[in-house]
Amino acid sequence: QVRLVESGGGLAQPGGSLRLSCKYSGFTLDYWSIAWFRQAPGKKREGISCFSSLDGSTEYANSVKGRFTISRDAAKNTVYLQMNRLKPEDTAVYHCAGGRYFSLSSEDFGAWGQGTQVIVSS
Known about the structure:
Elements: E1 3-7, E2 10-12, E3 18-25, E4 33-39, E5 46-52, E6 58-60, E7 68-73, E8 78-83, E9 92-99, E10 111-112, E11 116-120
C-alpha cells in the first residue's frame, strides 16, 4: 500500500521560498510518478508538477513554471517541491499523489497524502 506524507508548508512572504517534502513508501510498481496538486478555497484542484521515476522526467503547470522545481532524493524516499518567488495566489493546500502515469490529472493518481497548507501573505 502506497503511503505519502507531506511536510514543509507554512507562511511565506510574497517573493519568498518554501520547500515541500513528500515522503513515500509502499510502491510495488517498476516505475511510478509522484505529482503535486494544490487547491485553494473555492477553486478547482490544480496539478502543478509531476516527477517520473522511470527517467526523472518532470512537468510543470504554466502557473508555476520557472518558479517551482520538483526533485527526488532516492536515498530518503522523498520527492521535494522547491517553491521560489512565491505569490499570494500560490496560497492553497498542497497534496502529493502517487500513481503509475506521468500526468497532472488527479484522475490518474490513486494514492494521496494528507496535505500541507501554504499561505503567501505579507
